């Protein structure tokens, strides 16, 4: 929250594989609110053979015009997530291409963990631009 008592939140969703961020998307910024509503869809295309190594890191951020944007909190959805994040992931896999909504508690950001070794996610990387 800013010094004014409000916040300018947005959500950043990162497609993760073995602790590495492969792609990211973000929502619009909602100005001056502590209760934002996002009616936005974020879509990543993931080949079925890579789905087991993938997770989503969801970060709620506070936009700051001056300085750095601050992390308000994060949650993870995927096979390597805990309880609710794993259950949500399994439900999304059961009903592909359908929106599946759940509330998730935010936790303090601890940095990415996991191995940074190669793996089979290389096919998901966006080729470098010339």
Question: Can you describe this structure in just a few lines?
Answer:
This protein is mainly beta and 130 residues long. The protein has one helix and four strands.
Would you mind describing this structure in some detail?
It is elongated and about 45 Å long. It is 9% helix and 26% strand. The relative contact order is 0.23. The model is unreliable at 112-118 (pLDDT under 50). With 130 residues, the chain is mostly beta strands. A hairpin with a 2-residue loop joins strand 1 (9-17) and strand 2. Strands 2-1-3-4 form a 4-stranded antiparallel beta sheet. The protein has one helix at residues 83-94, and strands at residues 9-17, 20-26, 54-62, 70-78.
- Biggest pleated sheet: 4 strands, antiparallel
Number of strands: 4
Strand content: 25-35%
Query: Fraction of residues in helices?
Result: under 10%
Element pattern in H and E: EEEEH
Question: What descriptive keywords fit this protein?
Answer:
130 residues, mainly beta, four-stranded antiparallel β-sheet, 1 helix, 26% strand, calcium ion binding, C2 domain-containing protein, SNARE binding, phosphatidylserine binding, C2_dom
């Amino acid at each position: 929250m800013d010094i004014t008592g409000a916040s300018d939140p947005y959500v950043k969703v990162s497609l993760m594989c073995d602790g590495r961020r492969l792609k990211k998307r973000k929502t619009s910024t909602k100005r001056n609110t502590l209760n934002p509503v996002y009616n936005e869809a974020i879509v990543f295309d993931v080949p079925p053979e890579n789905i087991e190594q993938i997770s989503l890191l969801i970060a709620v951020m506070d936009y700051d015009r001056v300085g750095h944007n601050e992390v308000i909190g994060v949650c993870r959805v995927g096979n390597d997530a805990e309880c609710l994040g794993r259950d949500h992931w399994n439900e999304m896999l059961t009903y592909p291409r359908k929106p599946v909504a759940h509330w998730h508690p935010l936790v303090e950001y601890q940095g990415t963990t996991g191995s940074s070794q190669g793996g089979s996610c290389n096919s998901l990387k966006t080729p470098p631009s010339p």
